[in-house]
Amino acid sequence: MPPHEHPAAADSARELIAAHGGRVTRTRVAVIEALQRSAHPLSHDEIGATLDGAGIGHDRVTLYRALDWLVEQGIAQRIAGGERAWRFEIRRDGDHRHAHFHCERCGQIVCLEDVPAAAPTLPAGFAVARAELVLHGACADCGRAGVEGKEG
Amino acid sequence: MPPHEHPAAADSARELIAAHGGRVTRTRVAVIEALQRSAHPLSHDEIGATLDGAGIGHDRVTLYRALDWLVEQGIAQRIAGGERAWRFEIRRDGDHRHAHFHCERCGQIVCLEDVPAAAPTLPAGFAVARAELVLHGACADCGRAGVEGKEG
DNA sequence: AATCTAATGCTACAATGTTGCATCAAAAGC
DNA sequence: GCTTTTGATGCAACATTGTAGCATTAGATT
Ligand SMILES: [Mn+2]
Ligand SMILES: [Mn+2]
Ligand SMILES: [Zn+2]
Ligand SMILES: [Zn+2]
User: Which residues hold Zn(2+) (chains A, B) (predicted)?
Assistant: First the structure.
């Protein structure tokens, strides 16, 4: 890649990693870019598939550790979602924690950017670090096709 | 047990099961009573330990299935919580779905009965079946002892 | 008591995530 | 550019949480 290039997505990921004092590896770069490209939080498996697509060797453990590191550094955040697997999304700049919607039909998690996950007032003594608000139901796509259950 | 006894907790559980057309088994009765006694949602393992204590043979699978059945029947409900295991709590009468607090220090889940888990207005097409609101942080007990991390 | 079948107990398996350790390679030093 | 350092990886083995199939048991009904 020649110089005189305006900072592309690839560079952003590299810089992001370096800025946090980590080593810039193919895996980390690819994971960050996958998260940046995605409109919704990705599961470990989905990210793994992306790495496959990019021809990047991916050991399960390495991927878990890469994701752990991104979360530790505050570059990404973990979403509990409805199923048993974590999902991950990149942390944007003016980041206010938002709610998520879990579709019980297609299994997808949708970011509800406009719905804040705000912590209400709690009994004395409780210190809230973060709030997670997850709505479960049928997403717009799934609701449209077949209200009577039929298919998925 | 003699007659002329006012309906105790044990009977309630039996009646609850029968009312839903299920067979009254030791496992189901013990599980319901454990949930009824507990002030906070219980994990599968915690319930299993209770059964042990009551000298009731408990196969992992049976317990999972008993809990599934209770949830299907609307007798109990599942809480996602912060960790990877489901937790279960009994469904009370005038039951409004409430928020939960997950203490990241002691791992406990606390019911916030007074904090409703209300679903906000969503984009058109989304059908919300239920809302889950989980606050993460340090509970009153854990916050009190040692703000500086030290121990748990 | 005999019958019917829902629930159980077992085994085997799947999915998700973790630990330990040898090896590799990114970044720094020369 | 070559060497050194150590963070990151890859592999094997394991832990936890949850499911599926199927023979057996026991709760309810007659
Ligand atoms: Mn999101
Ligand atoms: Mn509760
Ligand atoms: Zn959907
Ligand atoms: Zn606590």
Answer: 103, 106, 139, 142
